[in-house]
Automatic annotation (TrEMBL):
Similarity comment text for this entry: Belongs to the glycosyl hydrolase 45 (cellulase K) family.
One Pfam match: Glyco_hydro_45
Catalytic activity: Endohydrolysis of (1->4)-beta-D-glucosidic linkages in cellulose, lichenin and cereal beta-D-glucans
Biological process (GO), any one: cellulose catabolic process
Extent of the signal sequence: 1-18
One GO MF term: cellulase activity
Protein name in UniProt: cellulase
The keyword Zinc-finger is annotated on this UniProt entry: no
Gene3D superfamilies per record: RlpA-like domain (2.40.40.10)
Taxonomic lineage from the root: Eukaryota, Fungi, Dikarya, Ascomycota, Pezizomycotina
C-alpha cells in the first residue's frame, strides 16, 4: 500500500516537474544584440526543418548554419532584421525571445513556441505568442523570456559592425538606453519597427512578469525563422504543455525509475 502511495506521489511530482519545462511563471525584458541567435546551430534542437534562419550583413539569408556569429567570433552570421516583434492588435503580439527555463535545456526550448500572458507592468491581460530563437544565460536560476526588440539593452559592438554605425543610436545619449518613442529614430531604419513596438504596444514596461505555456507554433512565426521542431505534432497543448509518452526525454524516464526504486526500497526497509 505504502509503496503504491509513494509511487503515485512520485508520479505526480515528476509530472509537475516535467510540466515546469512547458508552463510556469517568469519575467521578461528587452534586448537586441545583432548576433547569430543561439538556436541557429544544427545541434541545438530536434529539427524537422532547420535551426533559426540567420542573415548576412546585408540581411540576405545565410543558410549555412555552421558559420559562426559575427559578434566577436570571427564569423559572418547575424540575426535577421525581421525577427523583431509586431502587434496584431492592442492585446496580442508576436515576437522572438532569448529564453531560459531552469530545469530545461536549449534542446527543449529552441524553436518551441510559448503563449505569454502578462501579470503586471500595465500589460495585465495582454498576450504574446513567441518563438524561442535564442538563449539567455544571465541568471540560470530564473525563468526569463527576453523579447528581441532594439533600443533598451543592445549589444552595441555587434550592432555597430552590422550597420556601420557609430553606436549612438544603440546606446542612447551618454550611453543610456533609449527612453522615449522619438529616440527610436536614432536607430538604423531597419530596427525602428521593434523599437516603436516597445513604446506603442509594450508600453515601455520594465521587465514585466508573465505566465508561459508551450503552444504549437503559428505559421506566422515559423515562416520567419524557418525553424520547426520535430515534436510539434506530438506535443499536446491541451495536456498543460505535456508531450506524449513517445517524446518524453530519456533522462526523465531514468530519473523516475531510479527514484522509484529508491523509494520502494525505503518503504520496504522501514515497512511504511
Ligand atoms: C487580437 O488578436 C488575437 C490573435 O489573432 C485574437 O485572438 C483576439 O481576439 C484579438 N483581439 C481583439 C480585441 O481584436
Ligand atoms: C516578478 O518576477 C521577479 C523575478 O522573478 C520576482 O522577483 C517578482 O516577485 C515578480 N513580481 C510579481 C508581481 O510577480
Ligand atoms: C492530450 O491531452 C488531453 C488532456 O490530458 C487528452 O484528453 C488527450 O487525449 C491528449 N491527446 C493526445 C493526442 O494525446
Amino acid at each position: 500500500m505504502a509503496v503504491l502511495r509513494a509511487l503515485l506521489l512520485l508520479a505526480t511530482v515528476t509530472r509537475v516537474l516535467a510540466n515546469a519545462k512547458y508552463t510556469g511563471t517568469g519575467s521578461t525584458g528587452l534586448y537586441w544584440d545583432c548576433c547569430k541567435p543561439s538556436c541557429s546551430w544544427t545541434e541545438k534542437g530536434p529539427w524537422l526543418t532547420h535551426p533559426v534562419q540567420t542573415c548576412k550583413k546585408d540581411d540576405s539569408p545565410l543558410n549555412d548554419f555552421t558559420v559562426g556569429s559575427a559578434c566577436g567570433q570571427g564569423g559572418t552570421a547575424f540575426v535577421c532584421n525581421n525577427q523583431q516583434p509586431w502587434a496584431v492588435n492592442d492585446t496580442f503580439s508576436y515576437a522572438f525571445t532569448s529564453t531560459f527555463i531552469p530545469g530545461a535545456s536549449e534542446f527543449d526550448w529552441c524553436c518551441s513556441c510559448y503563449e505569454l500572458t502578462f501579470l503586471n507592468g500595465g500589460l495585465e491581460g495582454k498576450r504574446m505568442i513567441v518563438q524561442a530563437s535564442n538563449t539567455g544565460y544571465d541568471d540560470p536560476k530564473r525563468t526569463i523570456f527576453g523579447v528581441g526588440a532594439p533600443g533598451e539593452k543592445d549589444y552595441a559592438d555587434g550592432c555597430m559592425d552590422r550597420y556601420n554605425s557609430d553606436g549612438g543610436g544603440f546606446l542612447g545619449k551618454e550611453g543610456r538606453p533609449l527612453t522615449k518613442r522619438s529616440d527610436c529614430e536614432s536607430l538604423p531604419k531597419q530596427l525602428q519597427q521593434g523599437c516603436f513596438w516597445r513604446f506603442d504596444w509594450f508600453l515601455d514596461a520594465f521587465k514585466p512578469n508573465m505566465t508561459f505555456q508551450r503552444v504549437k507554433c503559428p505559421k506566422a512565426l515559423t515562416d520567419i525563422t524557418g525553424c520547426i521542431r520535430d515534436d510539434e505534432d506530438k506535443f499536446n497543448a491541451s495536456a498543460g504543455g505535456k508531450t506524449n509518452a513517445a517524446s518524453t526525454p530519456r533522462g526523465d524516464s531514468f530519473g523516475l525509475l531510479a527514484t522509484s526504486l529508491v523509494l520502494a526500497a525505503f518503504a520496504f526497509a522501514f515497512n511504511v
